[in-house]
Specification:
DNA polymerase, domain 1; 5 helices; mainly alpha
Length: 120
């Protein structure tokens, strides 16, 4: 018995209709489809085609491990680390401004109070 194509992760009723128009009516058909074949279908990029084929294989072989995601490049990791440092620095500057502002406000209040006393 054929596994419904909608049992594949990422395939809903609308996509199932598009696939069926191309002769792909089961998860088994989808698992043996080529990336080139799927990219001819509207809404399928090369990346989505690869992911869909992998998801179809996973749906048919649940015991098989999930495909391993590619590791982020060293450049991407460095960028992430840099963003973290920038965030931390912004927070420190913001905290420092808060402290500075608190002192100024108190000083201003004291001056205002002195002026009121002098006027009386």
């Amino acid at each position: 018995m054929a596994t419904p194509v909608t049992d594949v992760k990422g395939i809903g009723p609308a996509t199932a209709l598009l696939l069926q128009e191309q002769g792909i009516s089961s998860a088994e058909d989808l698992a043996v489809a080529t990336v080139a074949m799927l990219t001819t279908i509207s809404g399928f990029s090369e990346i989505r085609a690869r992911q869909t084929i992998a998801a179809a294989n996973a749906a048919l072989n649940p015991a098989a491990p999930e495909p391993v995601k590619a590791k982020k490049s060293a450049k991407a990791e460095k960028g992430k680390e840099k963003k973290g440092k920038e965030k931390k620095k912004k927070k420190e500057v913001k905290d420092k401004k808060k402290k500075d502002t608190k002192g100024k406000k108190k000083g201003k209040k004291k001056k205002d109070e002195k002026k009121k006393k002098v006027k009386k």
